[in-house]
Structures are given as C-alpha cells and as structure tokens.
Amino acid sequence: MNPPLFIFQLSAAAAGYNAKVLAEHGFDLDRIIANQHPSQISYGSKFHDPALLEELICYHPFWSHLQSILSEGVSFPLNYISPEDREQDLIFHANRGNHKSAIKNIEALRSIIKEDVEWGFALPLPIMALHFLPNASLAPLGCVKQSLVDVGGNCVVEFRMTHDQTSNLSVNLRVQHDKLPPIRYSFVLMQMIHYILDLRNRHPTTKIYLCKFDIDATYRWCTLSSSTAFESVTMFEDFLLIALQMTFGGSTNPALWGVISETTTDICNSLLSNNYWDHTSTFDTISDTLGSPMSLSDDIPFHQAKELAVSLLVNDLAKVDIFIDDTIGAAPDLGDVPTRVSRAIPLAIQTLRDQPKTKIISQERILSH
After folding, report:
1. What is the pTM assigned to this prediction?
2. Which end of the chain is more exposed for a tag (fewer CB within 10 A), N or C?
3. What does the alpha-carbon distance between residue 368 and residue 7 come to, in Å, rounded to a whole number?
4. CA 169, 170, 174 angle in degrees (round to 5)?
5. Quick check: 74 and 38 in contact, CB under 8 A?
6. How far is residue 32 from each of residues 29, 90, 250, measured CA to CA in Å?
C-alpha cells in the first residue's frame, strides 16, 4: 500500500494540509485517489482484486454491482438538484448545526470522530473549504446513547454517531430507489425459523446448533465514490469532515451493503453443499479461536415440531443467512456439520476481504508535516 497524500489527524494543521492537497488537484478527489493507488483509501482497498474475484463469482446475480463497488466506489443514485437549491441547502445546514444529542454528548462524539479520522473513514478539512467542494451536501451529526448487554449479561452504555441525511434537500430525499439492488434481509427471521422447524420435524431427537458472526464496523469496509463522498459531508467544531466510507445514515446503504453481505452468504451455503471442500485443511485461522459447540443439558427434552404448511428442500448440511451484518447459521448435530458451518462463514468473509482494519497513518509521519 502507498501512503496516502492526506494526513488523517483531527488537527488544524492536518485539515489545512488536506485542503491544500485538494486545491492542488482542483478539488478532484477521484483523481487524488487514483494517483495514490493502491492505498488504504483506494476503492475496494479492503477487498481482493475484482479480477481475482471474477473467476469465482462472475455468475452471481450481484456480481456487476459488486464489481462496480470495488472498482469505482459506492455511488448513490440521486436525483438532480440545481446549484441554487444546493447552495441554499448548505447554508441551511451550516446555520442549523448539529443535533442536540451531538452537543449534549460532545466529548463522546469527539472521541468517535477522532477515531474515524485516524482509521481513514473521514477526511478533515477547514470549515472554509465547504463551498469549494463540487456538488457538496451537508448533514447534521447526532450522538445517541445505547444500552447494550455484554457477554457476561451486564448492561453497558455505548455512544453511536449518526449522520442525518434525511433533512431539507439532503441525500436520502433524492435517492432513486428503483435503481438500487433488491434488499433481501427482511426475510431472514422467517427463513431461519422455517429451516429450524423442518430440521426438528425430520430429526425429532437431534440437537440443533446456532451460531452468529458480527462484522465489525460494517459500512466502513466500503469506500465511497468521490461524488458520493462530497454528498456526505458533516461539520464538527472547526472541522469539515468528508465521509470516505459508507455512513450509518444513508438510506441507500442497506441495499448497497447487501451486495456484499448476500454474496458472502451465498459463498457460505455453496461451501456447505460442496463435498470437495475439506473444512479440516481449508479454513480461516479465526476458526481456531471459536472453541467447541455448547449445548443445553441432555436432561431437557426435545420439543417436537409440527409439519410445515410449505415444502422445503431437504437440507441436512446447515443453512446460513444474514441480517445486514449479522450472519446466522443453523446446523443439525449430524457428523461434522456444526464444525463445517462455523468454518464456512469466516472463510467466505475472507474470500472477499483482503486488507485488515488498521489505522491509516503513523504518528511519526503526522509530526513530520
């Protein structure tokens, strides 16, 4: 990977330097990304080369969408907005500022933004650069508090940054939804329940194991195209922030991320049904950390399932499905099936992914500037 031309640090010096780099390239972000390729902000930098993936999944129905995302970045199909309306929208959001939750939880938000910048998810600029960005849109930030339960059953508090891209003339109100790929994940619960009930009906005294894998910072895997990045700008204190990766506020992102997640899921199920895949020799190393399956006490009786009103294809090889970024597997306790499903999911993810999540630049280089 080549070092990026930008400095990813939440400081006035870094913001000024980044604005200078943009100005020297005529504020053509696409040109800058191309000039430093391959780098961590290149399109598809966290995935394997599309030329390699094409040999494996070129016949998948989402391949053309996936190839575009990895080669050109994520692009939102948007309705046209006139320069006059766009300028009024920028002025509206600049005067409005961020949401009250962002002001109330400013310390937590500052920490989140600092981390986003250091990972290369957002590019800091001075506020004055806003009106130099071609076709820019501004979105207010929020910072919400969530109560979660950790693995020990304890209640923990976590803050999440939000991008409100659904106000005034912002991105979400201009999306051409008919040009997006179909969203599949809304059927996951019903599909998995049907599969589990079918397993139980056919195997009344066989244990059924479940597993779940969560992909960290899901949308941050996907680099935005330069035009969409300028449509995803926010402000915080004295900084303008260009989102370089998909945000958690764009209404297009569930469908566009689904291109990756659904393809990964189909790779999982293809592995499970492939007798030539040897799960004992070909697997991702994270599988070694999972341990053995855990089950309820043998004293607990099996609940019986009634026959389904619909017919399903007989499948005793396990089933994998996904809800946005949560991959779910169900496996009957037949031979090595539970182990195979627990190894198929990480292997399928690594089939697409290349670069691990790493901070984008060292402190030594920042100081040299």
Report:
1. 0.87
2. C
3. 11
4. 80
5. no
6. 5, 24, 24
Is 21 in a helix, a strand, or coil? helix
Per the document, the length of the chain is 369
Give Dmax (Cα) for the chain.
Answer: 72
For 195-199, the CB contacts below 8 A with 24+ separation are 195/312, 195/315, 195/319, 195/330, 196/330, 197/305, 197/306, 197/308, 198/305, 198/308, 198/312, 198/315, 199/316, 199/330, 199/332
Which string of b and e fits 5-40 if b means at least 16 CB within 10 Å?
bbbbbbeeebbebbbebbeeeebebeebbeebeebb
Buried/exposed code over 221-244 (b: 16+ C-beta within 10 A; e: otherwise)? bbbbbbebbbbbbbbbeebbbbbb
Alpha-carbon span 2 to 21, nearest angstrom = 16
Question: Which of 254, 328, 272 has the alpha carbon at shortest distance from 76?
Answer: 254
Are the C-beta atoms of 358 and 40 separated by less than 8 Å?
A: yes
d(CA 207, CA 294): 11
Name the nearest CA neighbour of 135 among 171, 161, 95, 103. 171
SS3 string, 153-173, reads CCEEEEEEEEECCCCCCCHHH
Tokens of 213: 């894998």
Asked if pLDDT for residue 46 goes beyond 80, the answer is: yes
Dihedral sign computed on CA atoms, order 253, 257, 262, 263: positive
pLDDT digit string (tens) for 181-212?
Answer: 998 888 899 999 999 999 999 999 999 999 99
Residue 155 neighbours by CB under 8 Å, 6+ apart: 147, 148, 149
